[in-house]
Design a protein that fits this description.
Layout lengths: L4 E6 L4 H17 L3 E8 L4 H7 L4 E4 L8 H25 L3 E4 L5 H10 L4 E5 L6 H6 L5 E4 L13 E4 L5 H6 L16 E5 L7 H12 L6 E5 L5 H5 L7 E4 L6 H4 L4 E4 L3 H10 L3 E3 L9 H11 L4 E2 L7 H13 L1 H14 L4 H17 L1
Parallel strand pairs: 1-2, 1-4, 2-3, 4-5, 5-6, 6-7, 8-9, 8-11, 9-10, 11-12, 12-13
Helix pairs in contact: 1-14, 3-4, 7-12
Length: 366
């Protein structure tokens, strides 16, 4: 193989898994002048389109998540065995130095195949409560990186667990700041950015609409990003002049950089950007996710005083307005929050992962 490093990366299903996988690949490309990358994903989910567009060689396997339908799940078990066999053939041919799993059920057959072939493996867990695939394959991993220390107690492994933070945070640092004028915002006024995305529907959306109506006499501006699926619903209403509504903002960290306060869900990727940019925030975890993991993501950071946690069940327009006004006026609290985020030092997560994997490979060769 010479001096060429070969890595196999697997992750899939959502951008929450794919983006950190890409961040890890980017770090390897920065560090290794002679690198070959192979990505193994599903045949039918978003990674099959996203990864080839990045000019990364791609192999697909057919695999599905379990559904609690007995007939479908029996078929899925058969497909898992077929996928493991196909992955072994792919790995024998490619001969990687390491196989890296970054979440999603597609990772199970890839990591299992690598373990069976005595190829070193690394997995990364983004959330405080690990997903099913990572729980299952932890015992086959030589090294596990976690975003939240809380994850350790859920992972049964003979390998080593290290705290790495989330590799997407560093990406946010490289995105240029937005110009307020380009978004119709006023220079010199404080800015509250609400990143809704899938912040909710029904009663929650109504609370947010009511909140937006209540800021008309405030001396700050609010930028509300609805997410494309909710934009039509929100734009039908008239809002105060200091409220700007957008369906989507390209390179969102550029907007976060000019924000004085961010209101967001508690997805691991969103939190990693907030931590890396050290933006004071109010976090409203989604209760509609597996294992209520967003709450636990947020709670770990709230316990460290890095964020303000506000549960959806306690949310009203009045409560949110009070919290926003209190945080914008309380400079001491905001500076303390920034200091606590700074002390976590998760900006170099992808580099930590790279160095840990490099050491693992060296141990194998020595």
């Amino acid at each position: 193989m010479g001096d060429c490093m070969r890595i196999v990366v697997t992750a899939g299903g959502t951008m929450g898994h794919i983006n950190p996988a890409l961040a890890i690949i980017d770090e390897f490309k920065k560090q290794e002048k002679d690198l070959e990358v192979l990505y193994i994903g599903t045949h039918n989910r978003m990674e099959k389109d996203v990864i080839p567009k990045k000019n990364i060689p791609y192999e697909s396997i057919e695999i599905y998540g379990f559904t609690k339908n007995i007939i479908n799940d029996i078929k899925d078990v058969i497909l898992i065995y077929k996928a493991i066999k196909k992955c072994k053939d792919i790995l024998r041919k490619f001969q990687p130095d390491i196989v890296i799993g970054v979440g999603g059920y597609v990772t199970y057959p890839v990591i299992k195949a690598a373990h069976d072939l005595h190829i070193k493996t690394f997995i990364h867990e983004q959330n405080s409560i690990p997903g099913k695939a990572n729980k299952l394959i932890a015992k086959n991993a030589d090294l596990i990186g976690v975003t939240f220390l809380e994850s350790q107690k859920y992972l049964k492994t003979k390998g080593k667990i290290i705290f790495t933070g989330h590799p997407c945070g560093a990406w946010a640092l490289d995105v240029p700041k937005k110009e307020k004028a380009s978004l119709g915002l006023t220079k010199g006024k404080k800015l509250v950015t609400i990143v809704a995305g899938s912040l909710g529907s029904g009663s929650l959306n109504q609370k947010m609409k009511t909140f937006l109506q209540k800021v008309d006499h405030e001396n700050y501006e609010v930028c509300y990003i609805t997410g494309k699926s909710h934009y039509e619903e929100f734009k039908q209403d008239k809002y105060p002049d200091n409220v700007k509504i957008f369906p989507y903002i390209e390179e969102l960290p550029g907007l976060l950089k000019i924000s004085d306060l961010v209101i967001s869900r508690a997805g691991a990727g969103s939190l990693s950007e907030i931590l890396a940019l050290e933006i004071p925030s109010i976090i409203i975890p989604s209760p509609n996710v597996a294992n209520n993991h967003q709450y636990y993501n947020a709670k770990e950071l709230a316990d460290k005083q890095c964020i303000r946690l506000l549960e959806e069940k306690d949310l009203t327009a009045e409560v949110l307005l009070e919290e926003v006004n209190k945080m914008l006026k309380d400079t001491t609290t905001r500076l303390k929050m920034i200091h606590k985020m700074h002390s976590l030092d998760t900006k170099n997560s992808a580099n930590l992962i790279y160095n840990a994997i490099k050491d693992l490979i060296k141990c194998l060769k020595n």
